[in-house]
Design brief:
Order of helices and strands: HEHEHEHEEHEEEHEHEHEHEH
Distance between the termini: 31 Å
CATH superfamily of the largest domain: HAD superfamily/HAD-like
Helix content: 40-55%
Largest sheet: 5 strands, parallel
Number of domains: 2
CATH architecture of the largest domain: 3-Layer(aba) Sandwich
Oligomer: single chain
Radius of gyration: 19 Å
Number of helices: 10
């Protein structure tokens, strides 16, 4: 988000003090790990780029295992996603004609022409991958269309369903666990959205803790089918629980 939540500094300080390794995993494909780390450092929180995993990075890592190096990819998305894919060795195509895969991330400069190029590639057998399925994201007084809306447009027009990398699918969490070298059953996912963070944790067979400072509220939790292993009113309460836990 634009503002740090109250208690963020104490939370990360506690993780460091207890020697708990962590990854900040985000569905955002428009940011780089370096950019996220800089943002935290501006707030006085030490965060290294390797402690950040974006859906753009995770998408590139997934495709490296699926496609040969130098495969042509048509990308809808912003610079961070394009850089992740090109750094992994893929050729970024300007049209859909020679693309063997279509990768779709959030794009604030989305046009009908981009959608049409992607649809052409998909109609001709290209692999369809989405960085994340978020249908919307909150603005000051409304919910703006998210990447899920773009994916839905392409799926509706082509009949091709995308492979999703980010939450609530397990791939982002699995890559984070592998980077930490910690098995899923020893990993705790902390998040503020039931339908992404907590559902994704369950699909990845990881324990989960919900913090009620985001989209999900206490009344939503009471009605929900998906339930976290633990729920906390805010980060300070979660941090207190981590401090009380015996080392």
């Amino acid at each position: 988000g634009r503002k740090m939540l109250p208690g963020v500094k104490g939370f990360f300080a506690t993780l460091r003090q207890r020697g708990l390794p962590f990854i900040l995993a985000t569905n955002n494909s428009t940011v780089t790990p370096e950019g996220v780390a800089d943002r935290f450092q501006q707030e006085g929180i030490g965060l290294r780029p390797e402690e950040v995993l974006t859906s753009a990075e995770a998408t590139a890592a997934f495709l490296v295992k699926q496609l040969p190096v130098d495969t042509g990819i048509y990308v809808i998305g912003e610079e961070a996603l394009r850089d992740s894919l090109s750094s992994a060795g893929f050729r970024l195509q300007e049209t859909g004609d020679a693309a063997q895969a279509v990768v779709v991330g959030f794009d604030r400069h989305l046009t009908y022409e981009k959608l049409a190029r992607a649809a052409y590639a998909l109609e001709h057998g290209a692999l369809f991958v989405g960085t994340n399925p978020d249908p919307s994201f909150p603005m000051e007084d409304f919910r703006a269309p998210g990447n899920g809306a773009t994916l839905a447009a392409l799926q509706t027009s082509t009949g091709v369903a995308p492979i999703i990398i980010g939450k609530p699918e397990p791939r982002l969490f699995e890559q984070a666990s592998q980077r930490l070298r910690v098995p899923p059953e020893q990993t705790l996912v902390i998040g503020d959205r039931l339908e992404t963070d907590i559902l994704g944790a369950k699909r990845a067979r990881m324990a989960s803790a919900l913090v009620l400072t985001g989209v999900t509220r206490a009344e939503d939790l009471r009605r929900a089918d998906v339930q976290p292993d633990w729920a906390f009113s805010d980060l300070r309460e979660l941090t207190a629980a981590l401090r009380d836990e015996s080392p």
